[in-house]
Model the fold of this input.
Amino acid sequence: MASSSETIRVGFIGAGIMGVPMAKNLLKAGHGVTIWNRTASACDPVVAEGATLAASAAEACEKSDVIFVMVSDPAAALACAEAAAPGLSAGKGYVDVSTVDAATSTEIAALVRGTGAMFLEAPVSGSKAPAEQGALIFLAAGDRQLYDRVAPHLEVMGKAHFFLGDVGAGANMKLVVNSVMGSMMASFAEGLTLTEKAGLDRETLLEVISLGAINTPMYALKGPNMIKGAFPPAFPLKHQQKDMRLALELGEKLDVTMPVANAANEMYKVAQGKGKDDDDFSAVIVALEK
Ligand SMILES: NC(=O)C1=CN([C@@H]2O[C@H](COP(=O)(O)OP(=O)(O)OC[C@H]3O[C@@H](n4cnc5c(N)ncnc54)[C@H](OP(=O)(O)O)[C@@H]3O)[C@@H](O)[C@H]2O)C=CC1
Ligand SMILES: O=CCCC(=O)O
Done:
């Protein structure tokens, strides 16, 4: 690891909804960023602000001291780690901020540590807008030395960061949070649908909810668009369903019965069947349309 006075070169893998604003915030804070994405053109907005485009994941790692990875799911995260490994070595740090299960994260950790590099999982709570505002919440676990090393970077991209222990703890915490969130959204969708069928005004429902104990930023933010039937993607529905599935697998492994999350997951699957994969997860409401 470079000493604290040394300039840390930052790599970024993944230029999706989350990766682009996160990488841009690192640039804005003065960090040099080398970026790679499977589809190179997705890096254009980050390159336009001064990032260097790498030709491969391994090259991004060769040119960096710490590498952040933000890709879609366990298969993508594993594929990126395999592609990145030839560019990793002792002294480097690999920080996977994608939402994956603990088993995948453990596999990635072994791959990364096998090169001599350090590993941190740090999935995030917070969506597109918090990513743009540098207001994410990082749920980190793995090599504590790397966590301390990248704390300034996490502070540029986020408003809070937690160190939760060994690899898997961050992944599990993230799945718990998203399982609760996915169930809340499914329940909210039911409430909006029931309100309409009862001949009541859905805007009034939003106002009533906003004044009471179940008020939440998510309902206030997503409700108006749900009423309009508009679902611009901040958190794609396919990723929410992936997280419900992974949370349910965790429940199965730990013998925790999760009837609410199970029912919500079925709603996300119905919405997927109606072509809503790439819409925002609030499009779960279409699962209730007859
Ligand atoms: N959007 C959100 O609100 C939040 C998302 N998350 C999590 O963050 C992660 C990224 O989310 P988000 O940015 O929304 O996702 P996007 O769908 O916008 O982007 C997915 C990224 O993964 C890449 N990718 C997919 N498959 C592969 C593969 N096999 N090999 C290499 N790269 C691959 C894509 O590359 P390509 O451009 O080539 O397709 C793209 O860069 C997910 O794990 C998600 O659950 C966490 C918190 C909030
Ligand atoms: O994983 C996605 C989380 C979205 C959010 O926290 O708003």
